[in-house]
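Fold this sequence, please.
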Amino acid sequence: MKIVDQAKLFVINLFENQKNQKLTFHSLEHTLEVVRQSALIGQQEKLNEDELSAVLVAAWFHDTGYLIELENHEAASIDLARSFFKKHPRATAFVQLVEDCILATKRNREPQSLPEKIIMDADISHTGNSNFINISKTLRKERSNCTGVAISQEKYWQETLLFLENQQFFTDFAQREYEPVKKTNTEKVRALIDKQKKGVRPKEKSTTRGVESMFRLTANNQMRLSAMADKKANILISTNSILISVSAAAASSQPFSPTKQLIPAVIILFLSSLISLVFAILSCRPKIKPQRCSESDIKERKTNLLFFGNFSQIPYPLYDKSMKEMMDDYDYLYTNLIKDQYHLGLSLTRKYKLLRVAYDIFMYGFILAALLFIVSYFFFRV
């Protein structure tokens, strides 16, 4: 197993075993996003394999210290990384680079190398995210949770504005991709502060109901389309079954009939109906590939808990625990819903493709049989 994968498993288990509900921003989801951004920026900045691996390991560990202490979490993160390297030894230079990258995420620190620049940009990439305002609200909630003192909106957004104005991206890729959106976010925060100063309470916009309606509508549409496909397939199956029976009976009697010239047309009709019937049945036939899901797959959130082909392989106690965890986790829940919609769409696409082939074969076979019948009947009669 690669060192990055080993670090991933170590950190996910760490977040699982030392859950802290107060950490609404510095959570596993934030870590996953920083890892993703580190990989993206690192590839764009053309890091070599060892440097990229070190940055990714550092990205996995950079906020684990929050699980232990808040004030000096970078040092705590480094301690956790060192305990990890005791079990998975690496070269001293590699370990040092990981520690340097973790330390680089400390506020107001100047990066000393390209790997440090990359992880620093990845750590603040949310400032260049169009959803920054909502993401930032989770940080405000976390600060209130951890200090036990509610921070006012005006004070929080003023501090956020100061942070945005003083923070900078260091890599060319981040400056090109994130800086323009960050400037837009800065203006949004400034507008929020101006409204608060004028006594205008900003209207909170929520897409929660819209998202729920979207999932419900999409699921209903897909089920309706699936039912329509099944109905069309049933019509085709019934029609082809009749044609196969009739053409088979006709073909068997043709050798003794004076109209034996019609045999090619009957054979074409029989074959096209048979092939069309097969594709119509395939479009309706369930295609299930149950996946064996290990506990580590569930912890790493690779399993779609809403698909019966997955959860039917999971013991009930583990499934019950995982479902309750998912229902308490916004991102985890909606990720599973998105996966479910996506795989429903794939299944529907397969069904309609097979149904289209079945109808095409039926149509062209019927046309060809009819033409052969006309030609044979009028031009080759004895």
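The CA atoms of residues 31 and 60 lie 6 Å apart. The first helix runs from residue 3 to 17.
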